[in-house]
Amino acid sequence: MHEERDPVSILNKWEQNNKTIAKRGLKAGLQDFISSIKEFPQDLKSSIDKDLAANEFPSLRDLQGIVKKIIAKVLKRKKINSLEEFYIVKEEVINETSELEVDARNLLDKLLTEFEFSNNKKKGN
After folding, report:
1. Tally of domains within the chain
2. pLDDT tens readout for residues 96-122
């Protein structure tokens, strides 16, 4: 893989320039991965879980639980507080196979719009 396309090389380069950007990039990549886990074949999920356990990391179920907790918090407070929450909520809303009820999906969609509007207003757009 070419260095400019290799995720590890990109992350290392970001880390040299700015650790905060590198951390945000890694976090966003992990969130995308966690969101897509549902679509993985069961044998792949099992293999990933074994690897995670062997390295003493949380299981896929634990990682997916983090996303569900964030969604529940956003629904309870009826507000998205961060860009991290925004992207997690957005992934859940656009995922047609998610277990969200229609009312919850509609509320989250409204909260996404409010967050975008609020951020654009802060930036002066």
Report:
1. 1
2. 777 889 999 999 999 999 999 887 766
